[in-house]
Amino acid sequence: MAFAIKMGFLLVTSSLMAVAAVSSSSFAVETSSSSSSSSCVGDPGMKRDGLRVAFEAWNFCNEVGTEAPSMGSPRAADCFRLSSSKTNKLNGGGYNIHHKVTDADNRLGVGKSFPGLNPKALDDPDLYAAEKELYLGSLCQVVENATNPWQFWMIMLKNGNYDTTSGLCPENGKKVAPFPPGRFPCFGDGCMNQPILAHQPTSITWSGTGSAKSAVSDSVPVMRGGFNGTYDDSNATSVSYFEVTWEKSVGIGSWEFNHKLKTSKRYPWLMLYLRADATKGFSGGYHYDTRGMLNTLPESPNFKVRLSLDVKKGGGPKSQFYLIDMGSCWKNNGDPCDGDVLTDITRYSEMIINPEIPAWCSPSALENCPPYHITPNDTKIYRNNTASFPYGAYHYYCAPGNARHLEKPYSTCDPYSNPQAQELVQLLPHPIWGEYGYPTKKGEGWVGDAKTWELDVGGLSSRLYFYQDPGSKDAKRIWTSLDVGTEIFVSNKDEEAEWSLSDFDVIIT
Ligand SMILES: *[C@@H]1O[C@H](CO)[C@@H](O)[C@H](O)[C@H]1NC(C)=O
Ligand SMILES: *[C@@H]1O[C@H](CO)[C@@H](O)[C@H](O)[C@H]1NC(C)=O
Ligand SMILES: *[C@@H]1O[C@H](CO)[C@@H](O)[C@H](O)[C@H]1NC(C)=O
Ligand SMILES: *[C@@H]1O[C@H](CO)[C@@H](O)[C@H](O)[C@H]1NC(C)=O
Ligand SMILES: *[C@@H]1O[C@H](CO)[C@@H](O)[C@H](O)[C@H]1NC(C)=O
């Protein structure tokens, strides 16, 4: 049922008087949230009625590989303008949703041209997807301020299967020969496929489900839409599933993004995130120009992230739920990335809130710890200082595979799952993070503990250890991706996670 639902303008009228209270003018055009000049996102707090959201699916090395039959390139978007018609003025007006992206746009795939497409990308699924993202961005772009246009929130879905006999993924950015299976999940040929994707274009109705926090009353029109799908074919007995739906009452509150992710026997390692990516340049994990929501790039230490998170199902003991995941890119000599996959390094830091995820970093496993910890008062504590080092605050640290001056002992990050080398600093709730508004104890923010967070992501990330060559100038810690979601690793059964996210904002402090 991919993209099966008819795209179009849905006119909803009603005789309810209540809507007059919602829209003060008969033209409720794109209620732009009181734009706070200090916000880095185009839609501060997800309050804008005229939604901009996109979808992308990645294989193990953040590429496409091969498109799924009749699905097109795995990039899609749902962007619209909301208006209310004058003709029904007495009754408060009927609302119109004017979609900016058509079903045909979303189905674009290799071999089909579109405005601006580089002919070299026409038949290359990887290049094509990158250019399709730019094209969808051009359709969705909002230019409120001539200096910093923005495009969309990005839903990112990734399949952790890796067919090592395919030779598809580079090793720390270097092309390598195929190698025997065993180290990564893969059921055989086709395990790195792209998903079947269905789209319910945003529409508007007068009946609230009552599930949207913002739906104060059934007499307020509610907008709803979603993307969903699976990696499995219909024959499978264990079927993977992903779903992101969005819902908002007109003129009130925040969009609520409801996520579901389920793994299956053949797809035991899946990731689903909602990202605020840079509106241009290389976002975390990409090596090509992207589009997104961060119209100003936040730089450590001066920014905070505000969001509301309600985790309903955790996804099992291997679900590395990221309250916040931040991604950027800089070279080991401190220079910003330039697209050269041999020297660019993706840098990630993630706070994992699943209380079942243990600290791999410990006094007896120093290779899983960063070389040192920096306290809020800027004191360095080396990891061999067993009396003071906060081992429980680190799930896992791994160094870039191409770092040349690592302090022993060390472990290096998986060299295949990014287009270039990567570095990971994975955190766990711990009292030492309290200063930054992060969870301080296991279970905080987890199932049954829905919360609105104000995280000093800038302050914390300014004090994390990231590898650089000795003597090099400190890299500017400018973040191109901030996201929330989960990565469910291989476990011995099908796992399911469910959560909702709203009020997302990134604020310069
Ligand atoms: C628009 O851009 C100007 C100049 O860059 C900036 O000073 C102003 O804060 C921006 N306004 C908004 C609403 O982003
Ligand atoms: C997507 O969700 C709709 C219900 O909204 C369902 O009918 C459909 O089967 C789902 N599609 C896939 C591919 O899972
Ligand atoms: C589903 O199973 C049937 C019968 O076993 C088989 O012929 C068909 O190719 C399968 N479909 C897919 C998509 O694998
Ligand atoms: C920094 O804070 C720690 C406690 O977190 C304290 O033990 C230490 O004395 C402080 N150092 C300075 C220089 O203030
Ligand atoms: C601890 O590690 C630091 C930094 O690597 C080193 O200078 C110091 O000698 C080590 N101390 C001990 C007791 O091993």
Question: Which descriptors apply to this entry?
Answer:
single chain, 509 residues, mainly beta, eleven-stranded mixed sheet, 4 helices, globular, disordered N terminus, binds 2-acetamido-2-deoxy-beta-D-glucopyranose
How would you describe this structure to a colleague?
This protein has 509 residues and is mainly β. The protein contains 4 helices and 20 strands. The strands form 3 sheets. Strands 1-4-3-2-5-10-19-12-13-17-16 form an 11-stranded mixed β-sheet, covered by helices on one side. A hairpin with a 6-residue loop joins strand 8 (241-249) and strand 9. The longest helix has 16 residues, at 125-140. It is globular, with a radius of gyration of 23 Å. The termini are far apart. It binds 2-acetamido-2-deoxy-beta-D-glucopyranose (5 copies). One 2-acetamido-2-deoxy-beta-D-glucopyranose binds at residues 375, 377, 379. InterPro entries: DUF7705. This is DUF7705 domain-containing protein. It comes from Centaurea solstitialis (yellow star-thistle). Residues 1-24 form the signal peptide. Residues 39-508 form the DUF7705 domain.
